[in-house]
Amino acid sequence: MITLQERLKKLVRQDIQSMHAYAIQDSTGLVKLDAMENPFRLSEALQKELGERLGRVAINRYPVVCVADVIAALSKYVKLPAGCKLMLGNGSDELISLLALACDVPGASILAPLPGFVMYEMSAKLQGLKFVGVPTTADFELDGDAMLAAIAQHRPSITYIAHPNNPTANLFDAGVISAIVAAVSEQGGLVVFDEAYQPFSSSTWMDRVAQHEHVLVMRTLSKFGLAGVRLGYMVGAAALIDEIDKVRPPYNISALNAEATLFALDHADEFAKQAAVLRSERARLQAALQAVPNVKAFPSEANMILVRVPDSKRCFEGMKARGVLVKNIAGLHPLLANCVRLTVGTPEENILMIDALKASL
After folding, report:
1. Sign of CA dihedral 359, 302, 122, 186
2. What is residue 1's predicted lDDT score, i.e. its pLDDT?
3. Per-residue pLDDT tens for 192-220?
């Protein structure tokens, strides 16, 4: 009789067997500052309103009209440029997977700077595509010459620019980005701006997407304040979105997720206030970190701060022992040696985080 292990070895692709699943840390009983979530809960009044709205959702029906309503509401919210369309994903993770699926033609590759969001590489490998990672400089800026050389050599189908980047939290140089956009256009590929952290950033490509038929802008509502809802969206030229949308599974957005999104957009001012508090707290954290000896905090345009410490493992474990969970990302890329990533939390959480960091060095 064939054992399960033999069966898996026979049926599951070898490259998948060699991969590691996306790791999620257990945060039970800890101040959770590891995943760039919005730390604010809804007020009791808004909780009640959301509960009543969700209670009226026709969950016995497939989500059709409600999803169309979300697309219309988001199109209005982002001031959808003329000639563009918007499509939805179950978080931006699904959109990244759909892009790899739609662009899986013979010889296709996906290119992104490293360190960067791990799902760009993972989606390429899961789809059997070549992934080309181009290291940034030591200060996490784009290496313009290396990026342009890689684009010329590999002619990637998709080039990702996280704007701002994850896990480094910085915005790349605008001039280098423009050169990359032009080079990819000449090579016949797509540029995808991943604006997951847009509520905290001073720059966006949404107002320029209509000027470039090969550019897509992708966002998520996770950092907006709806990480538990799982809704992402992507904007680009209507003809381009129409093609990518063909590989989207039917009914990929649940009726409950759609209604929660509509509720959040109805109260967008409340979430904007939360983002303003987090931007203010980010500045306060940066100032506090600059005063800590042997710690380097890098510039941030997101709701996280990349910090280099003398010993990231010791720092991470010490902070966790003191009840604060952050992310030790030193193993993600050689450029991230001894780096931890701190999510910006509430004022109270940030005080605990700084105290735990100081005590753990």
Report:
1. negative
2. 84
3. 999 999 999 999 999 999 999 999 999 99
Q: Which CATH number fits domain 57-266: 3.40.50.2300, 3.40.640.10, 3.30.70.100, 2.60.40.1180?
A: 3.40.640.10
* pLDDT at residue 15, as a whole number: 87
Integer Cα distance of 321 and 88 in angstroms: 40
Measured at the CA of 274, the angle between CA 339 and CA 218, to 5 degrees, comes to: 65
The pTM of the full predicted model, rounded to 2 decimals, is: 0.95
What phi-psi label fits residue 204: left (phi over 0), alpha (psi between -120 and 50 degrees) or beta?
Answer: beta
Place of tokens 């809802």: 229
Query: pLDDT band at residue 323, thresholds of 50, 70 and 90?
Result: very high
> Looking at residue 23, what is its pLDDT?
80
Q: What percent of the chain has pLDDT over 90?
A: 94
Element (H, E) at 288: helix 268-290
Where are the chain's structural domains?
26-42+269-360, 57-266
DSSP 206: G
Tokens of 316: 């991470």
Report d(CA 161, CA 195) in Å as an integer.
9
DSSP 139-192: TS---HHHHHHHHHHH--SEEEEESS-TTT-PPPPHHHHHHHHHHHHHHT-EEE
Residue 140 has a pLDDT of 98
The top-level CATH class assigned to 26-42+269-360 is alpha beta
